[in-house]
Each structure stands twice: as structure tokens, then as C-alpha cells.
Design brief:
Blueprint lengths: L2 H11 L2 H14 L4 H8 L3 H14 L17 H13 L5 H12 L6 H13 L5
Helix pairs in contact: 1-2, 2-3, 2-4, 3-4, 5-7, 6-7
Length: 129
Amino acid sequence: MDTQDHLLSLIETGKPLEIKRALAVRMSIKGYSRAEIAQLLDVSLQFIDKWKPIYFEKGAEGLKLNYKGSEGYLSKQERESIIKYILAQECMATDELKAYITTKYGVTYNSMQSYTRLLNKARARGKKT
């Protein structure tokens, strides 16, 4: 598989930003002007200038997203245990869940959304919270 085939593979299976990178590089190789590429893909000239040399240095792999996310504060088992705890309660408010997690696991989330997600996950298992 030559480098052009790798680009096509990335275009077909990649994430939207990876696809945009691969298309910009492929169009550049095919002879489109930077201005045409920028207009058609709604990207900046700097975007094209950044990804083309990366492609020639690292191949299609260099166009892939490298962000993997951060490690969670709770393990999978701890989250599962919390969901079981929620299900065992008659009802539970977000503030009560926050107090439980802080006391039992020493974890306090910055965003209430994290607690809401846990409550919703338990609710999805059939118990209203």
C-alpha cells in the first residue's frame, strides 16, 4: 500500500478532524492551490501548511489524533460500586451522591455533571433516582 492509499484509508475510517487533515494533504498533492483547499474544506492556510510536512515526515499516521483523554478519578470497579449504591437507595440527590463519593473514595469532582452522569447511568439500569 503506497502513501496515497494510506491517506485514502484514513479518509474512509478516520475521525472528522483526521479526515480534514488527510483531504487537505491529498488535495495539495493532487495540485489544488492552498486557497482552493482552504475554501473547500473551510480551513486556514496555516492548517494546510502545518499538516502537509507532517504527512511527508510521518505518513498518514502523523495525521491521526493523538489525544487519548485523561485517566479517570475512579476505577471501573469503583464506578460500578457507586452505581450499585445508588440503585440500593430509595432516591438520591446529586448533593447526597457528591457527599458519599467524597467520603468513601476521597474524590470531589469540579463539575456537578460528573455526579449527574453517574445518577443517569443508574437510572438507565431501571431505577429512578
